[in-house]
Design goal:
Blueprint lengths: L1 H35 L3 H5 L9 H11 L2 H32 L3 H12 L9 H10 L6 H9 L2 H11 L4 H9 L4 H12 L1 H16 L3 H6 L8 H9 L6 H21 L1 H8 L5
C-alpha cells in the first residue's frame, strides 16, 4: 500500500502541474472568445460569462475595418516573407554544412553573433536604407529585413547534419550538379524541416508589429496587427470589437499550426525521411 501511494503522489503532482500550465496557456484565448460576446463596458468590468453582443461586435468590426484588404496585406507579407526566408536560409544552411572550410566557420560564427544584436538597434539604419531605396510604405520594406534570418540558417544547418551523405555521393556519381542535388534530393528529404521552419517563420511574419508600424504609413498598406493596435489605442476603444479582430487575426496561424503540427514535431525532432 505504501508503494502504491508513493507512486501515485508524484503522478498527481505532475498531472496537476501540467493541467495548471495548460489552463494558464489556454485561458487568454478563452477570455478573448468570451470578451467578443460582451459589450465593451462589460469587458472593462471583468465579466467572465458569455454575453449577447457578438453580432454587434462583429458588425462593428466589419464596418470599421476593410477586412479583405487588411487580411490580404497580412497574407501577402507573411507568405512572401516565409517563401523567401525558407529559400535563402535553407540554401545558406545547406552550404554551411556541406562545404567545409575555415573561412566558412568564421563567417558562420559572425552570423550567429548577430543574434545578440537587438532589433531596436537596427531600426534606424534599416529605416534610412529603406528610405533611400524608396521602399517606405511598401510591403517589400517589411519583407526584406526578415529574409536573412540567422536563427533559421542555424536551424537548417543543424538539421542538415542528419542529411545522409550517401545520398549526395550517389547523386554526384549519377552526374547531378549541386543545385540539382539540393532541389531534387535535399528538399524532398528534409520536408519535415521545411514544414517546421514554415510554421515558425509564417507565425513570426504574421504577428510582426514593430517594424511594420514604422514603415507602413497608410491605411491601404497596414496589416491586421496594426489595425487591431489602432482600434485598441483609440480614445474610447471598443474592446468587444478588439476581441473580435484578435480572434480573426489568430485563426490563420492556428490553422497553419494544426494542419502542419505533425510535420512540425518531426522537424523539431530532426526527422529525415
Amino acid at each position: 500500500m505504501r508503494t502504491k501511494s508513493t507512486n501515485v503522489l508524484p503522478a498527481i503532482v505532475t498531472y496537476g502541474f501540467v493541467g495548471l500550465m495548460a489552463f494558464l496557456s489556454v485561458f487568454p484565448f478563452i477570455w478573448m472568445v468570451i470578451g467578443a460576446t460582451n459589450a465593451s463596458i462589460d469587458i472593462m468590468k471583468g465579466k467572465m460569462l458569455p454575453g449577447e453582443a457578438l453580432a454587434t461586435n462583429v458588425a462593428n468590426f466589419f464596418t470599421l475595418v476593410n477586412v479583405p484588404l487588411v487580411f490580404w496585406n497580412s497574407a501577402k507579407v507573411a507568405i512572401l516573407a516565409t517563401v523567401l526566408t525558407l529559400a535563402v536560409s535553407s540554401l545558406a544552411g545547406y552550404g554551411f554544412e556541406i562545404f567545409r572550410s575555415r573561412q566558412r566557420e568564421r563567417l558562420y560564427s559572425a552570423m550567429l553573433l548577430t543574434l545578440m544584436i537587438p532589433f531596436a538597434a537596427l531600426m534606424i539604419p534599416l529605416f534610412i536604407m529603406m528610405g533611400k531605396a524608396g521602399l517606405i510604405n511598401t510591403h517589400l520594406a517589411v519583407v526584406l529585413p526578415t529574409i536573412g534570418s540567422a536563427f533559421v540558417v542555424f536551424y537548417f544547418r543543424q538539421s542538415t547534419k542528419a542529411f545522409p551523405s550517401e545520398l549526395r555521393d550517389a547523386a554526384k556519381v549519377d552526374g547531378l550538379k549541386e543545385w540539382q542535388i539540393f532541389l531534387y534530393i535535399y528538399v524532398p528529404v528534409m520536408r519535415s524541416t521545411y514544414a517546421a521552419a514554415f510554421i515558425i517563420v509564417f507565425m513570426t511574419a504574421w504577428n510582426n508589429y514593430l517594424w511594420p508600424l514604422i514603415v507602413l504609413q497608410s491605411n491601404e498598406t497596414k496589416t491586421i496587427t496594426l489595425v487591431i493596435s489602432s482600434l485598441a489605442s483609440a480614445y474610447y476603444p471598443d474592446y468587444g470589437v478588439v476581441m473580435v479582430g484578435t480572434i480573426l487575426a489568430t485563426l490563420p496561424t492556428l490553422a497553419v499550426f494544426f494542419l502542419m503540427q505533425r510535420q512540425f514535431v518531426q522537424g523539431m525532432l530532426g526527422s529525415v525521411k
